[in-house]
Design goal:
Length: about 210
């Protein structure tokens, strides 16, 4: 994964020792930004190739449509459902990790407060135990992050697959030969974005 993407995915400890965990909507938006950037690059190359090929096709076969991929992902009602599933799956683990982090902060504060009243042996034993718990927490946090990324990617794949299926369905119904998702200019006459969103909303209402 790129550096930009990694920065969006990493949980971290803040200055006060609290774990900063994922905000589901922010993470999905972050990943989608990276994915859509890659999609734009591929789409530009595809436009160049398809533009050359289209020159040799009969005019009747050159019916073209356009969709705003970013808007489809942002406004698809199914996106909220996917976010809800992620929250349901990971909220309990997130709270458990946060609670452990807060307990460690409190334990470190007590050690500092009572250090002068403790023997050197007791102070060292408590400090060692705190470091051990911190290492275990960091390992569990990394496992949480890894599991979350896998589930989030699957969630995004389901959403993208559904959107693609709706685009194909509409394109076939309108006898459209080619649908682009990136263009310097696209007339509203060929923009299918609203139609795709309307169909996605109808599907969500039936669920």
């Amino acid at each position: 994964m790129s550096g930009k993407n990694s920065s969006c995915l990493s949980g971290r400890f803040s200055d006060n020792g609290r774990i900063t965990l994922f905000q589901d909507a922010d993470i999905i938006t972050c990943l989608l930004t990276v994915r859509l950037t890659n999609m734009k690059i591929r789409a530009v190359l595809a436009c160049l190739v398809l533009g050359l090929c289209a020159a040799s096709l009969p005019l009747k076969a050159q019916t073209i449509g356009f969709v705003d991929a970013r808007r489809l992902v942002d406004e698809a009602p199914q996106r909220e459902g996917e976010i809800h599933l992620l929250e349901k799956e990971y909220s309990e683990r997130s709270r458990e990790l946060q609670g452990r982090a807060e307990d460690l902060v409190s334990r470190e504060a007590r050690l500092q407060k009572n250090a002068l009243l403790m023997s050197a042996e007791d102070r060292q034993r408590e400090a060692d135990e705190i470091r051990k718990l911190e290492r275990a927490l960091q390992r569990d946090q990394q496992t949480f992050n890894d599991d979350y990324v896998i589930s989030r990617d699957r969630s995004l794949e389901r959403l993208e697959k559904l959107i693609s299926e709706v685009i194909v369905k509409i394109a076939e119904a309108k006898n459209i030969s080619l649908v682009l998702q990136q263009a310097v200019y696209a007339s509203r006459d060929i923009d299918l974005t609203d139609e795709v969103l309307e169909e996605l909303n109808r599907m969500a209402q039936r669920e």
